[in-house]
Amino acid sequence: MSRTNSSVKKYRKKKKKRERSRMEILIAIAGKVVDCMVEPVKQWLCYSIHYNSNIESMKKQVEKLRDARDRVQHSVDAAIRNGEEIEGDVKNWLKEADGIIELVRKDSEGEEEEKRKCCNGTFLNLKLRHQLSQKAKKIVQDIDKALEIGKFDKVSYHPPQHGIVTTRCRDYVDSESRMSTVKRLMEALRDDNIHLIGVWGMAGVGKTTLVREVANQAKQENLFVEVPIVNVTETPDHKQIQIDIACVLGLQLDVESSVTGRAIRLRERLTKTKDKKMILVILDDICEYLDLEKIGIPSEGCKVLLTSRNRDVLVQAMSTEKDFGLEVLGEEEAWSLFEKMAGDCVNKDNMRSTATEVAKACAGLPLALVTVSKALKNKSLNEWKDALQLLRRPATRNLPRMQSPIYSSIELSYSHLESEEVKYFFLRCAQMHFSIYHQDLLKYCYGLGSFHGINTLEEARHRLDRLVGNLKDSCLLLDCPDHGSKEFHTHMHSVVRRVARLIASKDHNMITVREDDGLKERLDVDSLKSCKEFSISGGDFHELPNGVEYCPELRFLHVYGGDRPLQISDTFFEGMGKLQVLDFTEMQLPALPSSLGLLRNLQTLCLDQCVLGDIAIIGELKNLVILSLMNSNISQLPREIGLLTHLRLLDLSNCSKLEVIPPNVLSRLEALEELYMGNNFVQWEAEKLNNASLVELKHLSHLTTLEIDIRDASNLPKDFLFKKLERYVIFVGDVWDRSYKREVSKTLKLKLNESFQSEVGIKMLLKRTESLYLDELKGVKSAWKKYAMANFPAT
Q1: Distance CA 507, CA 297 (A)
Q2: Residue 164: which of 359, 262, 305 has the closest Cα?
Q3: The dihedral of CA 572, 573, 574, 578: what is its sign?
């Protein structure tokens, strides 16, 4: 029994314990339930209670956001005006800010609407108050976050300026010559072994247009990742060139840092590119040497394309590995460009012929073709005709709009010539005809003393060759297409010549009157009084313009008479005491004016292609150093010529009627350096009885140039030695074609008969001969024949 009671007690005790545990669990659960129910109610009541403060806080914060948004937008607007790109996170922030502001606006409008519906707008129901208050607090939190994010240091960046366009330049025309050059340029750009390329040509020939077309094609072919094109100014600024290149590449350079510091950064950018593709840097219009390393352009790792008006700048100074010369357009190519720029108006029946003449007057120069065609587009026929007259005549000081850019670009090339000497030489070339004969230049410039530090004609000839080369490299002189030998002739582009004559007239008192110039009528005494050089030719005149004889400052006078008699008074030269060079070409001069003898300072006298009578007065010109009678009809050389003991050059070439040269005239010209007697005098005598003898030439110890025609080899003296000869054209024998033309230096044509005695002298010349012609060698020793055949096997 006791065990039973004990078990019951234990059971009841455990049961109570379990009931207590369940109660505790129920109480705990109930507490949790109460907690879960109270907190939402509490929060719900909190939103409702703080409704006004949450709404007010939202309104204040949204005003702050609106102000911040406006500040950022102002910065964005300024950046866009500066051509900058806006950062992506700035764009996103503005979009987000606009969204928040718009949300607040809509919520405010919704609140006002609900107020009107509830209790006449006095109260909102508790549910709506809770919703609006809760939303307002969330918006405030979003605004706080947006305000923190919107504190931008900068809102934009400078985008890379690619420097090229993918559309073709409007001024470019697909001409055969240009397409060929573009093709060869593209081949050079693809060549991994070529890094520095040059394009040169005269001002206005289209270098910039061409390289931009090349850049366009390179872009289309995806040859380079970037192609910055920078125009190099007249006075190169390394800092500005660096900044211009960096701007295109999107590289930020510290403008306050040193040139070297910027160069290091630029060099790194030019050599570090994506996909191992190079950058092509185009530097347009280089006028002088440019230190690429100093700028930051490496010799490897990128490619460089340079343009210049001066070939020497590219080839010599910049050491380009490949260079391309750009010529003016041919007639068909020029018309194609002109027609493209001028439009359909040039093809109207009443316009075509005039438009064609205007295009021809531009002489194939692209800048002139584009400028003139644009200026005349859709203009009347009378305006076209007036423009044609302007283009054909020398420009005035007040240039028309269509001429100004053409003249300015060429004048810039002139201003960059290396010295005053070469500048004057350029202007002197412009006073001459289309074909510029180098021998004439030598006669003029030596007589004027234009070559500084020069004494002999040989030195002057070297200087002339250098100056001609300089102007060719600057594209201001061109090889003459009408002559096979570039050694003796060049020419100047007609547009360049017009600019040069304008400069010469304006700045150097050099007046040139040509046919259709219209200047002869406008010449006045005042302009002639200050005139230093005067040239007149081509017009139908029978006397010189009034006032020419009153030129106290005149140093140079050239009159091209056109094979007509010209009235010149005996006193004509009395007022020209400073005259140094006088050239009367293709004139009929029965007698020279007596006042010619007064020209004590005259250094050069040219009477080429003239019909001459008595010229004995020339003997009074004691200081004369150059006398040229080339192609004149003179039959007897006056004995008075022997008085010209300072004479250094005597040109009698092609004076086919010359039969008499008195004995002992040539031998007295001991200062003579150059003697030209090709295709003229052949009446050489052995004993100096009635005519000159070849023996007299032995006295000309300074002779460096000789052109002579010896019909009879027996007249050659035994000691016919000319050790100083640098150039010679010697014909011996009676079988040679006597039609006169300038031969290459050191030409010898021989037909030697049995009485030939000057073997030693001829052999000495033979050792230096460049061009040898042989007909017969009768009586010549076999050893000498073997020597000739061995050294000239093709003769």
Answers
A1: 40
A2: 305
A3: positive
Helix, strand, coil content of the chain in percent (nearest 5): 45, 15, 40
Residue at token pair 């001829």: 762
Sort strands 156-157 and 85-86 into parallel, antiparallel or unpaired: antiparallel
**Alpha-carbon gap, residue 80 to 91, rounded angstroms:** 13
What's the mean pLDDT when you consider all of the chain? 80
Same domain for 297 and 208:
yes
SS3 225: coil
CATH number reported for the structural domain that contains residue 214 in this entry: 3.40.50.300
Q: How many domains does the chain have?
A: 5
Is there a single domain that holds both residue 114 and residue 227? no
Supply angle C-alpha 10, 14, 20, rounded to 5.
Answer: 145
Residues 102 and 133 in one domain: yes
In contact, 519 and 500? CB cutoff 8 Å = no
677: nearest Cα among 740, 757, 633:
740
Is 592 inside any structural domain? no
Residue 84: exposure state from Cβ atoms within 10 A (0-12, 13-18, ≥19): middle
Q: What angle do the packed helices 366-376 and 404-415 form, to 10 degrees?
A: 160
510 pLDDT more than 80 = yes
Q: What domain range is 475 assigned to?
A: 417-501
Based on the number of CB atoms within 10 Å of its own CB, is 382 exposed (0-12), middle (13-18) or buried (19 or more)? exposed
Let me know whether 278 and 391 are in one domain.
no
Which of residues 733 and 382 earns the better pLDDT score? 382
pLDDT in tens, 697-710: 888 989 999 998 88
* Predicted confidence (pLDDT) per residue in 354-384, tens digit: 888 888 888 888 888 887 887 788 888 888 8
Question: 281: burial class by Cβ within 10 Å (0-12, 13-18, 19+)?
Answer: buried
Give the separation between CA 707 and CA 743, rounded to whole angstroms: 10
Burial classification of residue 44, based on how many CB atoms lie within 10 Å of its CB (0-12 exposed, 13-18 middle, 19 or more buried): middle
- Residue 226 near residue 234, CB atoms below 8 Å: no
Q: Which range is least confidently modeled, 93-102, 168-177, 396-405, 609-618?
A: 396-405
Tell me the CATH number at 447. 1.10.10
The alpha carbon torsion through 731, 732, 737, 739 (nearest 10 deg) reads 40
Residue tagged 């023996």 (tokens): 695
Q: Which residue has the tokens 């109460």?
A: 34
Confidence of residue 305 (pLDDT cuts 50, 70, 90): very high
The answer to the question of residue 701 being in a domain is yes
